[in-house]
Specification:
By secondary structure, this protein is of the alpha+beta class. It contains 27 helices and 17 strands. It has a four-stranded antiparallel beta sheet. A four-stranded antiparallel beta sheet has the order 10-5-12-11, with helices on both faces. The protein has a four-stranded antiparallel beta sheet with strand order 7-6-9-8. It is extended.
Length: about 650
């Protein structure tokens, strides 16, 4: 609800301080290679004794842009920049460096053991056993083209910031005096009206002249320009290339069976009902009653204690929760038997054996298919990791795409010219194979003379060596091919201009004191009837952001004022008028202030992190180079 009044503080600035500027993006697969500084470029900022360069800032912004585009595929650079993302990312990156510098200056330190423990906990680094697996980690880092040294430094930085910010992240309770005004505003009722200007009411149906069509085409040539085309060269790297290395030997199978003997040994289990009595006499009375025909649960309840059910208990597991003596008594009894009282860890135990189960031991031959499958998968992952690492080393050593493919016996495939969407406009019958989609992002992020890269198609199963065969720059389509589209766009714009002009006249009339209905009648245009609205902010919060634009607008007005609101689709306009605002009464919702207080309390840690980061920046002496920041932004905007 509180988000109706203000955005939640999840900005890139705060996220950077909380430690997602490196490791989080590595693990999500969008980290650019080489996170460290000192790579040349112009200095964007001096943070204590360290420097941040335009090269590193540009790389970090590009990584975040790609991550955001993964969430929203239609996102473009212009929209990304218009939302202020570049400035927030710049602030966040500088703030992270300042916090790290401040932490080191004040005695914070991260040891190797702590870094190792953090890395071991990352799910992306778990092998087939579910535990941390170093070859899996190395393969993952190789896929991201990131050295282990840089990765460990990034983990250390995240941990250092977490230590420094731990107090700022502690739970904080917002005062009730802060929540009260928000709660009152959420109950305020706003009453007004909305006039609708549909396109059909003001549509301009006069065909444009040839000169107007040509002028519109020239003025909006970007709208009629086909995007850049690229032909990809790629070679698949998967199971087929390492099949000979994935078959476990008889010795490996036997060794695995021996080392994991407990998994394949016989298992004797019991379903039990257990009672723990405080004295031997009480326990004996319960056992006697149970053997005389009463249920163990009833006998326990009569004695003032409670019975519990335990399913699928092995002797070893049961002994851990009781004692060896209790377990021996239970596993020596038959089905349906009630044991004699035995002293255990928490009192005297009386146990009924409800069922006896388990599984028989499996021989090596019986377990072989399972072991072969596990070892084959593990060896496949290791062989693929080794192969992709060799390919990366080959590329890093200066080998060409052709040399790398030939030396590793890879089959090269070349696509027709493709748009970034994967469509081949000059080959409409061409159908993209499944592996193309995961390769498009990196293929269109490369320049034509970049080294080839290894990209994951299915992590740990299939990869591809990717390069660029040919690039065709964005090309304007001939007017003859887009003439109908140009005419349609001219008509739409004319209609929108007329609707906007009419709306501005209506707004001006209402703001002079003319009622909206009369202003519409005087306009001489047949419009739909005026719609009355009465709404509270608390009601809109329940719509989770799906609030029509003219309704949202009523909360930006003072009584008696009007505003012109474009529709969410841009095809119609609305005139929203606020007639009166009725203050909210907190007595009508006694728990609301407390609820909003809780929501405010959740956002306060982010506020504190923000303020702490800015205070640290002053103490560490951060010096910004505004010209270099602007240069980095221009470079990113030009891609």
């Amino acid at each position: 609800m509180i988000t109706f009044f203000r955005r939640a503080l999840s900005s890139w600035y705060v996220l950077g301080l909380l430690g997602v500027l490196l490791v989080g993006f590595i693990l999500s697969g969008v980290m650019s290679p080489g996170a460290g500084g000192g790579e040349g470029g112009v200095t964007v900022a001096k943070i204590g004794s360290e420097q941040l360069s335009t090269i590193e800032l540009g790389r970090q912004v590009q990584s975040r842009f790609e991550a955001a585009r993964r969430e929203q595929p239609t996102l473009n650079v212009k929209t990304f920049l218009a939302a202020g993302a570049f400035e927030q990312l710049t602030d966040g990156l500088i703030a992270t460096r300042a916090v790290e510098a401040w932490g080191k200056a004040n005695g914070f330190a991260i040891g190797k053991r702590l870094i190792d423990a953090e890395i071991a906990g990352y799910p992306a680094f778990r092998g087939v056993t579910g535990q941390f697996d170093e070859p899996t980690m190395r393969a993952f880092l190789a896929q991201q083209r990131l050295s282990e040294k840089d990765f460990r430094e990034g983990v250390a930085s995240d941990l250092l910031r977490a230590q420094v910010l731990s107090s700022a992240l502690a739970p904080v309770s917002a005062p009730l005096s802060m929540a009260g005004p928000y709660a009152s505003l959420s109950l305020e009722r706003r009453i007004g009206s909305v006039g609708i200007i549909p396109p059909a009411a003001v549509a301009d149906r006069t065909p444009p002249s040839d000169a107007a069509i040509a002028a519109a085409y020239r003025a909006n040539i970007a709208a009629y320009t086909r995007g850049e085309l690229r032909s990809l060269r790629y070679a698949l790297v998967g199971t087929a290339q390492v099949i000979d290395a994935t078959k476990p030997s008889e010795l490996e199978i036997a060794t695995y069976y021996k080392n994991d003997a407990a998994t394949y040994a016989a298992k004797d289990t019991r379903d039990l009902t257990q009672v723990i009595a405080p004295t031997q006499a009480a326990a004996q009375g319960i056992a006697t009653a149970a053997r005389s025909g009463a249920s163990l649960q009833a006998a326990a309840a009569k004695a003032g204690v409670e019975a519990s059910t335990l399913l699928g208990q092995s002797r070893a597991d049961f002994a851990k929760s009781t004692t060896d003596a209790v377990a021996a008594s239970v596993f020596g009894a038959g089905k349906g038997a009630v044991t004699d009282p035995v002293k255990g860890a928490f009192g005297w135990y009386v146990v009924r054996v409800d069922a006896i189960g388990g599984v028989a031991a499996r021989s090596l031959d019986q377990a072989r298919p399972e072991i072969v499958a596990l070892l084959s998968k593990q060896k496949q992952q290791e062989a693929l990791a080794d192969l992709t690492a060799r390919i990366d080393d080959s590329i890093g050593g200066g080998a060409s795409f052709e040399e790398t493919a030939r030396n590793n016996k890879l089959t090269v495939i070349e696509t027709p010219l493709l748009l970034q969407t994967g469509q081949a406009p000059d080959n409409p019958d061409w159908k993209a194979p499944p592996e193309i989609a995961p390769l498009l992002k990196s293929a269109f992020a490369m320049s034509a003379d970049d080294k080839p890269v290894v990209e994951a198609i299915v992590p740990e199963q299939q990869y591809a060596l990717v390069g660029i065969a040919r690039v065709v720059p964005p090309t304007p389509m001939p007017l003859v091919k887009v003439r109908d589209a140009v005419i349609r766009d001219i008509m739409v714009k004319r209609t929108a201009d007329k609707a906007r002009a009419l709306g501005n006249r209506l707004v001006a009339a209402v703001n002079r004191g003319v009622p909206l209905a009369k202003a519409i009648a005087d306009a001489g245009v047949a419009l739909p009837p005026v719609q009355a609205i009465a709404v509270r902010q608390i009601d809109l919060a329940k719509l989770q952001g799906q609030v029509p634009a003219p309704v949202r607008a009523i909360f930006s007005l003072s009584p008696g004022r009007a505003v012109l609101v474009p529709g969410d689709t841009g095809s119609e306009f609305f005139v929203t008028v606020l007639e009166k605002a009725i203050p909210g009464d907190l007595a009508m919702a006694p728990g609301l202030a407390g609820q909003i207080r809780g929501e405010l309390s959740q956002s306060l840690p982010s506020e504190l992190v923000d303020q702490f980061g800015r205070a640290v920046g002053k103490e560490v002496k951060v010096q910004r180079n505004a010209d270099a920041i602007a240069q980095a932004k221009r470079q990113f905007a030009g891609q």
